[in-house]
Specification:
Structural class: alpha+beta
Largest sheet: 5 strands, antiparallel
Low-confidence stretches: 1-18
Distance between the termini: 34 Å
Helix content: 25-40%
Mean pLDDT: 88
Number of helices: 5
Number of domains: 2
Radius of gyration: 20 Å
Oligomer: single chain
Strand content: 15-25%
Number of strands: 8
Order of helices and strands: EEEEEEEEHHHHH
């Protein structure tokens, strides 16, 4: 599972015992290698498509001030594209966890494949906000990739442009915190793809409808590999965008 982006807060928060009950999950924190994992079992009748969880701690300073820290995470195939699979009924997944002697952890919110959610509504909203951030990022990424495909732009220079954009995001007051995280995630991933010229994971990779390989596009069209790379990444971003489009807002209650 690709590691989720972390969001560090120094805010007041509810203790673990005050978390909304999620009856469809069984969650246990267990040692895993040199660290810890939350082992989450889906006891519901529908597949899990996304989860939001938080690790929390309290530190007492020498002056007697209590610093409360929370680190939030998401498990979501629509933001960790091609990495986090849905968890079927009866299935188990391991989520990142901190040392339970210093941190409290637990799943705050979960979204199921039928659209219903359980847990803290703020956690559910955070999942959708991050999706909207990724979606916005894809819309901004496609024209940049097009400059490589059709205008011969240098991928390294485009990567520099992407870096400048995500470095400027903290100054954008129009973005919510979780939408910013989704946008930062997309920008960071795009910059890495452009600099390394690697392919990206996509659910279609393991199907008969997979996107063409970079080398295939270069050979068939007689174009440089970096141009073919931009074409393939654009196609996968368009695939990603299509999967996100109907999943940017909670379903309307009937």
């Amino acid at each position: 599972m690709k590691k989720s982006l972390l969001f560090l807060l120094t805010l007041s928060f509810l203790p673990l015992s005050a978390r909304a009950q999620i009856t469809s999950l069984n969650v246990e924190t267990k040692p895993f290698g040199h660290g810890w994992k939350q082992v989450v079992e889906n006891r519901g009748s529908d597949s899990i498509v996304a989860m939001y969880w938080t690790s929390r701690s309290e530190t007492l300073t020498k002056s007697g001030r209590t610093i409360r820290t929370a680190v939030s995470h998401t498990y979501d195939p629509l933001t960790q594209y091609g990495a986090d699979p849905n968890v079927p009924p009866g299935g188990v997944v391991n989520l990142d966890a901190a040392d339970p002697s210093k941190w409290t952890s637990g799943v705050d919110a979960v979204i199921f494949s039928d659209g219903h959610s359980e847990g803290d509504p703020k956690g559910v909203n955070a999942i959708y906000e991050r999706r909207r951030g990724v979606y916005r990022g894809i819309n901004e990424a496609l024209p940049l990739l097009d400059t490589i495909t059709n205008q011969g732009a240098n991928p390294t220079e485009v990567a520099d442009t992407v870096r400048h954009r995500w470095q400027a995001l903290p100054n954008d007051r129009t973005l919510g915190a979780d939408e910013r995280i989704g946008l930062e995630q997309l920008y960071h991933g795009l910059e890495n793809l452009l600099r390394t010229q690697r392919d990206m994971a996509a659910p279609s990779n393991s199907t008969s409808h997979r996107q063409p390989r970079i080398e295939e596009v270069a050979q068939v069209n007689g174009i440089p590999r970096q141009q073919a790379h931009a074409i393939v990444i654009s196609k996968k971003y368009q695939e990603w965008k299509a999967d996100l489009e109907d999943n940017l807002e909670p379903p309307v209650a009937k």
